[in-house]
Design a protein that fits this description.
- With about 425 residues, the chain is mostly beta strands.
- It has two domains: about 1-55, no CATH class; about 95-125 and about 175-410, Porin (Beta Barrel).
- It contains four helices and 16 strands.
- Strands 1-2-3-4-5-6-7-8-9-10-11-12-13-14-15-16 form a 16-stranded antiparallel barrel.
- The protein starts with a helix and ends in an 8-residue tail after the last strand.
């Protein structure tokens, strides 16, 4: 019955085209395709009628030969679309993407320390992701850097009843705004000094389980997250790098201020054994803010701030390390942007403070390619930043960064 209705519809489409109008090549191709479809519909009706007769009489009948399309000699041959049938073999096949980071830097520090580096391919990321079934998804990110390969992230995401979501495996700890984002997706080319002094040059990553649930209050959207994980961070938890267990809780909320502006606020608390002195523990408290304006022409601006404090209990007393940054970004258009960032770090007990100023520009050639240039000046370096730069504590440094990120293959969108 559906085929018959389609057969009546196709001639109507032909009649809708004015006969007296000068026919362009596109109209001729369209007419030839419609004629081809009509002939296929007639062949399908004949085959359906033939199959019905075979079932009713029990006598096998020969299938009608396919009708070859008749195309006007004045019309160009119509291309026949290729149809790729979905089979069970490619169900669940992972999407694979490769992201390459080409980076270079130059540093001039205290005591005449000069360092320059340029790596044609400083880091490569291989991202694999696919839905296991209707309820579970697997994502794995493998990094290749410094002649070795490692699993940067690898976790399962399961959709549970009542809107709960469970993630299990190895992943960046969802602390603030910068820690859980892959480096190539950040607008700047370095790591904020506040995070370096809290966790070292590497991100805080752990293996465990994380469960979150969305909440909607009026026009605002919120999320509550709880996690239990272990990590071997040698700055915040254990100088020997031994795996330590910890728990965390996180809240984020987002509000629409107008049609183009959103406000995000959040807070995080992490508690775990640190192995520094007996049964001492590390308590990390953080807060973040993100104010973003994004227009339809891809212009806009954003203001992002993050503050984290790690209080480490020791055999006698305690120590506290604060790390914070303030980032401003201005999107000129789809391709160009400029940014500036201020970093601040402090260690309690008269150990002093550190600050840094950064500025840079970014050029987005496309969704799959971007170039970043950045300058950074750091003053009064603390222990972690000084060790990372290879200069003495309390000295200053000037750095220039170049980063070129290219990606091939499909990749999931980054967080808003």
């Amino acid at each position: 019955m559906k085929a018959r209705k389609l057969a009546w519809l196709l001639p109507c489409l032909l009649l809708a085209i004015p006969a007296h109008a000068a026919e362009s090549d596109e109209i001729k191709v369209l007419k030839s395709q419609i004629k081809l479809l009509m002939q296929r519909v007639e062949a399908l009706e004949q085959q359906t009628a033939s199959n019905s007769d075979t079932v009713s009489t029990g006598v096998a009948q020969k299938k009608p030969a396919p009708v070859s399309p008749v195309v006007s000699a004045a019309s160009p041959p119509a291309p026949v679309p290729t149809v790729v049938a979905s089979t069970a073999e490619n169900t669940g096949n992972p999407s694979v993407s490769v992201i390459g980071t080409f980076a270079g830097s130059a540093m001039r520090g205290g005591n005449g320390v000069h360092k320059n580096s340029f790596l044609p391919l400083s880091e490569g990321e291989f991202v694999f992701g696919a839905a296991v079934d209707a309820h579970t998804r697997l994502d794995v990110t493998v990094t290749a850097a410094n002649g070795g390969m490692a699993v940067e992230e690898g976790y399962l995401t399961a959709r549970l009843p009542e809107g709960f979501r469970l993630r299990a495996g190895r992943k960046f700890i969802p602390l603030g705004r910068a820690n859980e984002v892959h480096p190539h997706a950040l607008v700047y080319a370095d790591t904020p000094n506040g995070l370096v002094n809290l966790f070292g040059p590497e991100k805080l990553v752990g293996e465990g389980v994380f469960i979150d649930h969305p909440l909607y209050l009026g026009d605002s959207a919120h999320s509550l997250l709880f996690g239990f994980f272990r990590n071997g961070n040698d700055v915040a938890f254990d100088p020997t790098g031994k795996n330590r267990f910890g728990g965390m809780a996180r809240w984020t909320g987002m509000w629409d201020l107008d049609d183009t502006t959103t406000l995000e606020l959040g807070g995080t608390y992490i508690n775990g054994r640190n192995g520094i002195a007996g049964s001492s523990r590390s308590n990390i408290l953080g807060a973040h803010l993100a104010l973003k304006n994004s227009r339809f022409d891809h212009s806009g601006w954003s203001l992002q701030a993050e503050w984290n404090r790690n209080r480490i209990n020791k055999a006698v007393g305690h120590s506290m390390t604060d790390g914070a940054y303030l980032l401003g970004e201005y999107d000129i258009n789809r391709n160009w942007l400029a940014f500036a960032r201020y970093d601040f770090s402090r260690i309690s007990g008269g150990m002093g403070y550190e600050d840094a100023y950064s500025a840079g520009i970014g050029w987005k050639l496309s969704e799959f390619q971007s170039i970043t240039l950045q300058y950074k000046h750091t003053r009064h370096t603390l222990a972690q930043t000084a060790a990372n730069l290879g200069i003495g504590i309390g000295q200053s440094a000037n750095e220039a960064f170049f980063r070129w990120v290219v990606a091939i293959g499909p990749h999931r969108p980054h967080s808003y």
